[in-house]
Amino acid sequence: MLSYIIRRTLMAIPLLLGITVVSFAIMKFAPGDPTSLMMDPTISQADKAKFMERYGLNDPVYIQYFKWLGAMLQGDFGTSLIRKGVPVMEMIMNRMPNTILLMVVSTMLAVVISIPFGVISATKAYSKLDYSVTITSFLGVATPNFFLGLILIMVFAVQLNWFPTGGVSTLNEPFSIWDRIHHLFLPAFVLAAADMAGLTRYTRSSMMEVIKQDYIRTARAKGFKEQKVIYKHGLRNGLIPVITIFGLMIPSFIGGAVIVEKIFTWPGIGLLFVDSAFQRDYPVIMGLTVISAVFVVIGNLVADILYAIFDPRIEY
Amino acid sequence: MAKINLAENPSPSLELHGIKTTRDTMLQIVARKFFRNKLAVIGGIFLIVIISAALLAPVIAPYSPEKQKLLEKLSVPSREHLLGTDRFGRDIFSRLLYGARISLLVGFASVLGSITIGTFLGAIAGYVGGIVDALIMRFVDIILSIPSIFLLITLVTIFKPGVDKLILIFALLGWTTTARLVRGEFLSLRSREFVLASKTIGTKTHKIIFSHILPNAMGPIIVSATLSIGYVILAESGLSYLGLGIQPPVASWGNMLQDAQNFTILLNSWWYPLGPGLMILLTVVCFNFVGDGLRDALDPKINE
Fold first, then answer.
1. CA B196, CA B145: separation in Å to the nearest integer?
2. Are both A28 and A104 inside the same structural domain?
3. What transmembrane ranges does the database entry give (chain A) (predicted)?
């Protein structure tokens, strides 16, 4: 097991390096080199040469890449072009807690809602309840999150005035947990919606498989209550494949966070990314792209390792 | 019961048992299986309606999509303006029709590009194998590890948005899943007897890849293309919603939604966001239904 974990971790390293090469190449070979944006176009020839020298732009491309990579490994993503001199890392770290809060809450929401529905759907397969859960989750997958968000803002924030239309807290009011939850509810729900649908369907099919197994019949034959058979014997095994789905969902989850943060002006890294894109603040864009990919790679790594730990049938 | 095709010499015993022995073309079988799937047929009909409406937009649309009549701004749906008007007094129904043109154009054109790239690279990776395969597939892994919205937005900021640039960007980013799929098909097909036979009689490699193996892998490619169009339409409207895709005043479903996210509109003109939102939803769902239908119809392992 330990050797599997080590091997799997080592496999992630070339992937991470590849990601940095691709991000660097996009920025470097893009038409209209982004670094030229940093310079004042009216600058004199001599000043331009000095500028090129200072930022190492005269070095061969691969040297520039290694310098950039080396700095990044030490947490130095350069400085913002728009907010002159502010380190990109500092901007990202300021926004990170908001994004993590949003993601953790919406993951919990998705799990708490979809796993029970998936299990009930499987135990009462082909009933009316099962069909309505299936149809709802199908619509959930198909509805674009920006449309769902807009509709929820329209109904619950603008028309009914139950929730705020966006932001993390009420202006000029001291911090309170209740205020934060109040602001968090709609964005967390929208972000969770797409995952909920997928998770419900996946839990359902996984449980359908499990219920057919011999050990479930044995448990029933022993006279255990149906409740205990399903939730104690069944669910434990039924949830193992769901871990993999979690890993696969990470990229779309991070992508979803970008749009959700924009809809609800939730000041996390997603909103920072969209704002930086408008201002063409390339160091921030690049830093966030690399960080998001690192999240995906680590997320998949953790999912694979958890899968190996929880499923003793698999030998590594 | 699997169909038995014995066209040349219909066996009397099979005829006696009531089994049809005439030969159906592949296309007939696929069509029959597809039309049996109700959702796929409904999806297909809706798509035909949407595509015709988009093609005929200049004829159907009662107004020019960009003509402003500020005196009639945010009017309610009426006989003159079927779905009302937006903040600049532009007819929402006409804008929806022209928005369909943009979404479908971006969807079809970029998927044509991405399928071509993906099929080409996937075929080479799967057939040649070894280091070429490893290089192409590791590159695919890298692209797929970066959440697509980050790559999309990064490329959009570099290239500056516009319909042609968006098509190019979606084509350049969308080929990875097709490449994986085609590679898988080629891995299993390349060791089959007919490939060995072609090799033995000295057929050129590119001919084996593209005229002998590729036709056998067309089914999954067509399914993947259909599903990708829905995905691209969704992503394009998402970008336009963020203000990074199709730029106003050109109408797209995404930027109409962005335009509708305004307190006054959400309070008084609730029908405005519903139009573009439901069009996106409907179009994407229909492409998914048709794609699923084609998957079952093209799969010879699934019986009628």
1. 36
2. no
3. 12-30, 100-123, 135-160, 180-199, 238-264, 284-310
Total structural domains within chain A: 2
Mean pLDDT along residues B175-186? 92
Q: Are residues A208 and A302 in the same domain?
A: yes
Q: Where are the beta strands (DSSP E) in A107-238?
A: none
Q: What is the pLDDT of residue B2?
A: 47
Question: How far does B148 lie from chain A, in Å, by closest CA?
Answer: 7
Identify which of B275, B242, B227, B269 has the alpha carbon closest to the alpha carbon of residue B107. B227
**Residue A56 sits in the same domain as residue A196:** no
Q: What is the pLDDT of residues B98-142, one digit of tens each?
A: 999 999 999 999 999 999 999 999 999 999 888 999 999 999 999
Q: Which of A37, A131, A146 to mutate to test the interface with B (most CBs of B within 10 A)?
A: A146
The secondary structure element, H or E, covering residue B184 is: helix B163-189
Residues A67 and A116 in one domain: no
Q: Which token pair is B290?
A: 């048709």
Contact B233, A266 (CB under 8 A): no
CATH number at residue A136: 1.10.3720.10
Query: Would you place residue A38 in the very low, low, confident or very high pLDDT band (cuts 50, 70, 90)?
Result: low
Q: Measure the CA–CA gap between A18 and B134, rounded to whole angstroms.
A: 13
- Asked if B60 contacts B44 with a C-beta cutoff of 8 angstroms, the reply is no
Same domain, A110 and A235: yes
Residue A84 in any domain: the answer is no
CB contacts under 8 A, A 275-314 vs B, are 277-278, 280, 282, 285-286, 288-289, 292-293, 296-297, 300
Residue A55 exposed, middle or buried by CB count within 10 Å (0-12, 13-18, 19+): middle
Cβ-Cβ contacts under 8 Å, A144 against chain B: 234, 237-238, 277, 280-281, 284
d(CA A301, CA A299): 5
What is the average per-residue pLDDT within A266-294?
89
Does residue B61 carry a pLDDT above 80? no
Angle at A70 between CA A68 and CA A75, to 5 degrees: 90
Q: What per-residue confidence (pLDDT) applies to B44?
A: 93
Q: For A162-171, B116-125, B144-153, which range has the lowest pLDDT when averaged over its residues? A: A162-171
> Of residues B245 and B20, which shows the higher confidence score?
B245
pTM (whole model) above 0.90? no
Q: How far apart are CA B166 and CA B236, in angstroms?
A: 8
Domain ranges of chain B: 33-64+83-298
Residue of B nearest to A35 (CA): B158
Residues A68 and A99 in one domain: no
A271 chain-B contacts, CB cut-off 8 A = none
| Half-sphere exposure at residue B212, Cβ-oriented, CA atoms within 13 angstroms | 19
In this prediction the ipTM stands at: 0.83
Look at residue A79 and tell me if it is in a domain: no
* Least Cα separation, residue A221 to chain B (angstroms): 36
Same domain, A306 and A226: yes
Cα–Cα distances in Å, from B244 out to A164, A242, B208, B250? 26, 35, 43, 13
pLDDT at B1: 42
Round to whole Å and give the CA distance between B134 and B137.
5
The domain covering B33-64+83-298 belongs, at the CATH homologous superfamily level, to MetI-like (1.10.3720.10)
Residue range(s) defining the domain that contains residue A30: 2-73
For residues A151 and A255, state if they share a domain. yes
Q: What angle do CA B146, A108, A268 make, to 5 degrees?
A: 50
Q: What is the mean pLDDT of residues B168-181?
A: 92
Which pLDDT does position A37 carry in this prediction? 60
